[in-house]
Design brief:
This is Aminotransferase class I/classII large domain-containing protein. By secondary structure, the chain is α/β, with parallel strands linked by helices. The chain contains 20 helices and 13 strands. It has 3 domains: 8-32 and 35-75, no CATH class; 80-103 and 382-511, Aspartate Aminotransferase, domain 1 (Alpha-Beta Complex), CATH 3.90.1150; 111-376, 3-Layer(aba) Sandwich (Aspartate Aminotransferase, domain 2). The structure holds pyridoxal-5'-phosphate (PLP).
Length: 516
């Protein structure tokens, strides 16, 4: 296959990657959690096979090209292991406060207790291959009932529509592998959940094609990213540009509620997504992993509640075989480590394609049935979700009161586990910040490489001070200077993390005294 010309996204990353590599590469790699960016975004292995670093890994470790590329550029987790293995606690004051990952530890005790009490080993079902890699019948039935009832599904979902995966990352990988060929693209509105890049690229070599909003009529700020008309134009523009660049787009993938923005899409926008996919023969994949991580925020007077695409009547809008819902235990059930997720689809071909490789990685049925027991216990779920929501409100108040007290702006949200914090003022001149002129922080600005460096520097200082936060650029926003900070952790950890964050900001401000 001839090497494809880099896409717009890749070109943007190329400039970043070249910049990273030519400046503080070690720091950048550490903060990004992987070694570099460009080949990680490039879906065409042919074009990275000649990369000197890939070649040297290939020769040194006797790897395949794809193995060498993944090792050289796409191993997000390996480099993070050390800091993740040393989390802060009152008993470990020298540990790192991890506010970078989308984890909700507020109800860990309750989940642990439930699992201990419900764990029940049935040899016939749990110590055999049982019903195989599509998942335990019990969990699939419980999941179907959960979706029908709690997602207000228009149609009756049965266990035949559910395929269980070890976490949602695995579901995204599996569905990508099932519907895309190498080099194809999936449209995702920007900013986007950074894990989508990993899930879509690392095995399938499929491209993330970001949907951009800057310059789209009606777009003036983050709120507009949820409007149907703005999305309609942005999607059409992105699809046209992808076609011009020779990319075969196969699907639209959205996160609803949105990661990293923490808001829900209204039904009109979801309908627009479905209609766009229907008209263009694309799959519509709706990742609804934060469906029950929505909470009241009095600062948003008319919040958009969560609506699942299952609740919409999309008859005649999109072929039901092209619509897929993803859900998992990681966020709403506070159990990232359980590795539990599922795809809900009417498409038997996708079920078969995913099940054909499901034997390589399935979560044990004994654990699947433990999650099923949770979902089946409606009273427990009700109590759990209410208690969790109250704790989320408390921590959200805590983080936003802290940010406000110290004059740090942020985007108000009412869903998800994190706050999108605005540090753009630390990237521009003092006079620009005073006039709220942030045109220079756009990723298309000539200052982009310098702004990226500053963003990395802020994250680096935070790490040095013992708190990990996520620099915005990993989510591909259209501006530099944003950071994602998780608030769903214990009170003491949040307090400690925020104090370390503030100390880091002061350090950055002292470093940039000379800015005029
Ligand atoms: C939108 C979204 N989808 C999927 C995932 C992956 O979740 P899992 O832990 O189930 O793999 C995450 C995790 O942060 C997420 O934010």
């Amino acid at each position: 296959m001839p090497a494809a010309a880099p896409t717009r996204v890749e070109r943007a990353f190329l400039s970043k990657a070249q910049f990273l590599i030519s400046t503080s590469s070690k720091v950048a790699f550490h903060i990004l959690g992987c070694r570099a960016v460009l080949p990680a975004m490039n879906s065409n292995l042919g074009s990275v096979a000649n990369d000197a670093h890939v070649q040297s890994m290939l020769n040194k470790y006797h790897l395949s090209t794809r193995g060498a590329c993944n090792y050289a550029y796409r191993d997000v987790w390996g480099p993070r292991e050390k800091s993740m293995g040393d989390p802060w606690s009152p008993a470990n004051p020298a540990g790192t406060v991890i506010l970078r990952l989308a984890e909700n530890s507020l109800m860990h005790k309750e989940v642990g207790e439930f699992l201990r009490a419900q764990m029940n080993v049935s040899p016939v079902e749990h110590l055999t291959y049982s019903t195989g890699p599509r998942g335990s019948r019990r969990l699939r039935r419980a999941a179907a009932a959960f979706l029908t009832e709690r997602f207000h599904s228009q149609k009756h979902t049965t266990y035949h529509n559910i395929l269980v995966t070890p976490g949602l990352a695995s579901a995204i990988d599996g569905i990508t592998f099932a519907i895309c060929n190498e080099g194809d693209g999936i449209l995702i509105p920007q900013p986007l959940y950074n894990g989508f890049k990993v899930d879509i690229l690392n095995r399938s070599n499929v491209r993330v094609v970001g949907v951009k909003y800057e310059g789209i009529e009606g777009f003036t700020g983050l709120d507009d990213l949820f409007l149907p008309d703005v999305n309609k134009v942005a999607l059409e523009t992105a699809l046209r540009q992808a076609k011009d660049e020779g990319i075969n787009i196969r699907a639209l993938l959205v996160s609803n509620p949105h990661n990293p923005l923490g808001r829900c899409y209204p039904p009109e926008t979801l309908r627009e997504f479905a209609s766009f996919c229907g008209k263009n023969d694309l799959h519509f994949i709706s990742d609804e992993i934060y469906a029950f991580s929505v909470f009241p925020n009095p600062k948003i007077p008319k919040p958009t509640p969560f609506t699942s695409i299952l609740a919409l009547n999309l008859h005649g809008v999109i072929d039901p075989a092209r619509m897929h819902i993803l859900y998992g235990a990681s966020k709403d059930f506070c159990a990232n480590g359980l590795r539990m997720g599922f795809v809900c689809t009417n498409n038997e071909g996708i079920m078969g394609a995913m099940s054909s490789i499901g034997i390589f990685s399935w979560s044990p049925h004994v654990l699947q049935d433990a999650w099923a027991a949770m979902m089946e216990d409606k009273q427990w779920v009700e109590r759990f979700m209410t208690q969790k929501r109250d704790l989320m409100v408390d921590r959200y108040k805590m983080i936003t009161a802290f940010l406000s007290k110290h004059g740090i702006p942020y985007y108000e949200m009412n869903a998800g586990l994190f706050v999108w914090v605005d540090l753009r003022h630390l990237l521009v001149s003092k006079s620009s910040a005073q006039q709220s002129d942030y045109s220079a922080v756009r990723v298309t600005s000539p200052d982009a490489p310098v702004n990226l460096q500053r963003e990395l520097r802020i994250a680096e200082i935070c790490v040095k001070n013992g708190v990990m936060i996520a620099p915005g650029h990993v989510y591909l926003p259209e501006e530099h200077g944003w950071f994602r900070i998780t608030f769903t952790v214990g009170k003491e950890a949040l307090e400690e993390g925020l104090n370390r964050f503030l100390a880091s900001i002061k350090e950055i401000e002292a470093e940039s005294q000379d800015r005029i």
